[in-house]
Each structure stands twice: as structure tokens, then as C-alpha cells.
Amino acid sequence: MNNYDPVIRRVKKIKKGGHHGGAWKIALADFALAMMAFFLVLWIINVASPDELAAIEGYFNDPAGMSTAGYSNHPIDLGGSPAMSTERKLDMALPEPGSTPELTDEQARREGINGNELEKMNAMLVEQFNSMDRINSNNHSMRIEITPEGVRITLIDDPDKPMFERGSARLVADMENTLLSMASVFARVSNPVVITGHTDASAFVGDGYQDNWDLSSERANAAKRALVEGGLAPRRIAQVIGLADTVPYDRVDPSSAENRRVSITLMTDAAYKRLLESSRRRFGGSQVELDPSLTPESVF
């Protein structure tokens, strides 16, 4: 007879890597929400007009509504906004990305981008320049092109007949006479003028800290002075800048002589307005509305 009771041994199996909670679900939800917001921003940028983009920029510059661009703190009404905007709404009937609606003649004239206007100005410039022996002799170094900003006249440096003395902003006699003659042609139109100076990629070794930026800026200003001396009204000059070698005409050969040039653009009204608006938003100071009741005595 067995006096011992049977002993039953229970073994509990523990699985490795057990339950760790639901923190990963929260992280996944946050990631999905962030991606949805990101794609919503991309969609708004894609369908918004330039005016609406400017309104959005003004809002983020000053959400309180006193932005320098003059927009309210509700630039776009997506529905349910406490302050419904009737002026700047997203147009859901916008064309598909990559397509451009055809403007009517009336819209084109109002926007100042009528192709016929640019064609006429381009033809006038070509005719006038060809009628001048001084300019016609350098015609191989002059290119007239129609661009989205207006009609651009590009004066390209010729190694045999350079525009400037080597390594300086001093105009040679022929080029100075050319610019003086061009000013009388520009007097036939009233478009604003943008002058840009360009260099090639060759390093410029000047006095002190001078480099291609200084050289291109000085050459653009030298061209401006010659045009003003020839009769171009100073008030018509919208911008004079030097771009060094950052915008090469010949991208294959950055050291090509074609990259040493001066460009003169007769801008359309729409392009000029865009330039002013862009410059004001980027470089302008904050606009402060003063109380008309303030007097010098109360301030000081």
C-alpha cells in the first residue's frame, strides 16, 4: 500500500514578447493625421490663385489680422468660418494642374499680357534698331526676345568688340554710343525698365573684396547711367541689379563670352505690378496705421 499522495506539477508557459500596450496605435494615428494635414496643404497650394497664396502668406505673417499685406485673419473660407469671406474663396472650378484657361481679349488687355502688344513692341524695336547704323553694326551681339515679363534686349559681349574694358565697368566708346541711341528708341514707349548685369564663371580678381557680384552690379549701373544720359526718364527705371554668373546664357559653357552680357527688359504693366508686390512683401517694412486724432503734442 502506497502512503504517499500523488504530486501534480503544473508548469506555466510564458510567451516571450508579450503584450506591450497600445502606444504604437497612438503614434500611428498621429502620423496619419500629420500626413493628412501635409497633403491638405499641398492641395491648397496647388489650387490656390496667386492672390489667395498672398492672402495665406499674410495670415501666417500676422495671424491677428494686422498683416503688412493688408489681408484679414480669415484669408480663405473653407466653410463654417465665423467670418465668411466673399472676396477670396478657393475656386473649385479651377482647371486641372498643367492646363491654362484661354483669356478673352478683354481679360488679356486688362491684365497687360496681350501677346499682340508685345509683338508690336518687339517689331518696333527691331525696326528702329535696324534703322540705326551704329546699332546695326553690333546686331550680331544684340538679341531681342519676348518673355513673360516683357520684351528683353540682351547685349552680349564680343571678345573682338567688348562692351566694357577688361575687368572693369568702364564702357567702351562704341557700346556707350549704342546705349545712348537705344535710349531714344525706348522713349517711344512708356514701359518700366529693368537692367541686369551678368558675368561669366571666370573668377574676377579685383581690389579688396571685389568679385563678380560687384562687377555685374557696376556694369548694370554703367548701362543705366548711359541710358539716362541718352534721354531715358529715371522714373521709368524699375530695377537695376547684378547677378554675377548665377544666370548663365550658355549653360553648357559657364565661361562662354555669351554669359558676359547686359539685359534691358521693357516690362508689361502686369509684370511691373508683380515685381512691386513681390519686392514690397519681401523687403518692405511693416505698415502702421496711425490714429488721425494723434497730434505731435500728445506724442511728444
UniProtKB/TrEMBL annotation:
Domain of life: Bacteria
Membrane topology field: Single-pass membrane protein
Alphabetical list of Gene3D superfamilies matching this protein: OmpA-like domain (3.30.1330.60)
Xref: PROSITE patterns: OMPA_2
Transmembrane segments annotated in the record for this chain: 21-45
InterPro entries per the UniProt record, alphabetical: Bact_OuterMem_StrucFunc, MotB-like_N_dom, OmpA-like, OmpA-like_sf
Keyword Cell membrane recorded: yes
Coiled coil spans: none
Domain OmpA-like positions: 151-270
Pfam families recorded: MotB_plug (PF13677), OmpA (PF00691)
Record's GO cellular component terms: plasma membrane
Keywords linked to the UniProt accession: Cell membrane, Membrane, Transmembrane, Transmembrane helix
Localisation per UniProt entry: Cell membrane
Family: Belongs to the MotB family.
Name the record gives this protein: Chemotaxis protein LafU
